[in-house]
Amino acid sequence: MSTRIGSLTVMNDTLRNVSQSQETLANLQQQISSGYKSQTFGGLNGSVEQFAQVTSELNRANQFNTNNQLNISKLNTADTALNAITDIADKMKAMIVSANGATITTGNLPQAMTDMINSLMSQLNVTFNGSYMFGGTNTAEPPVTQAGINTVVPGTPSANYYSGSQANAMIRADDTTTLDFPVRADNQAFQKIFAAAKLAINAATNKDTASMSQAQQLIQEGQSDLIAVRSQLGSASTNITAVNNRLQQQVTYWKQLSDDVSKTDIVAAATEVSSYQAILQASFQVYARISQLKLSDYLK
Q1: Rounded to a whole number, what is the distance in angstroms from the first to the last CA of the chain?
Q2: 298 Cβ contact partners less than 8 Å away, ≥ 6 residues apart
Q3: CA 187/CA 181 separation, integer angstroms
Q4: pLDDT by residue (tens digit) across 214-259?
Q5: Given CA atoms 229, 230, 233, 238 in this order, what sign does their dihedral have?
Q6: Regarding beta strands 127-128 and 178-180, do their DSSP bridges make them parallel or antiparallel, or are they unpaired?
Q7: CA 215 – CA 110 distance, rounded (Å)
Q8: Count of beta carbons in the 10 Å neighbourhood of residue 196
Q9: At residue 152, what are phi and psi to the nearest 5 degrees?
Q10: DSSP characters for the chain?
Q11: Mean pLDDT in residue range 36-61
């Protein structure tokens, strides 16, 4: 009788082991096929809080990274505009120097200078993703208008042509880094270039050599200030690129942690599958052996 009870116990244990092994094996096969340890938080075995925190940090780093890609593109667009403005200022200076002789002939200087003023205005009204870049926080309206240009006083730098905001637009590179967008259209470099161009037009029209010399001095000062503006823009771009590089390293770090928590270790899971398949095979063999016992086997 004790032999029969012992055999029943072995059979129950075997069936229980078969059920548990089949469940575990099915779970492992699901992990391998999906690539994830679980399809729900409940299956992360106590790692839910860690996974939620890691996911939050990863999403935040990715968002800043995406924003900074746009910020870098915006700064590059601004630099392209400043490069064009530099060319315009160089042409203005060349024309003023050429006209600044003992005898001024009007020639085409007034019209050419007017055209370059309009080109300068166009560059200062450049947009990025539909927003004006050089108007400070006012990104909806052009910072320089023709009506504003008409108010420029020849030879007197001022920002009376400017209709943008007096506050700089801000660039938030990450949680701890915030930068001013470094260029507005009311910068003194542009004030001097506009004033010099207007003065050169008057000097050419009135054949005023003293005013033309003053225009030359003023355009040179504007060019020097423009170099400083481009330097500030370059520094901002360098800083944001450095922050973005650090963010990309953080993204890699947080992604690795996320994968460690949530993704299946295929090699380890495959090894476990082989182990549980062996357990199942052994359990079925035990079950088959017990199932073959007859009453006479218990009476021996």
Answers
A1: 11
A2: 3, 4, 7
A3: 12
A4: 999 999 999 999 999 999 999 999 998 888 888 777 777 667 665 6
A5: negative
A6: unpaired
A7: 13
A8: 28
A9: -65, 130
A10: -HHHHHHHHHHHHHHHHHHHHHHHHHHHHHHHHHSBS-SSGGGGTT-HHHHHHHHHHHHHHHHHHHHHHHHHHHHHHHHHHHHHHHHHHHHHHHHHHHH-SSS---TTHHHHHHHHHHHHHHHHT-EETTEESSSTT--SS-SB-HHHHTTPPTT---STTB-S-SSPPEEE-SSS-EEE----TT-HHHHHHHHHHHHHHHHHHHT-HHHHHHHHHHHHHHHHHHHHHHHHHHHHHHHHHHHHHHHHHHHHHHHHHHHHHHB--HHHHHHHHHHHHHHHHHHHHHHHHHHT--HHHHH-
A11: 59
Cα(149)–Cα(144) distance, integer angstroms: 7
Tokens of 256: 């690795």
Q: Two tokens at 37?
A: 């340890």
Tokens of 278: 């062996």
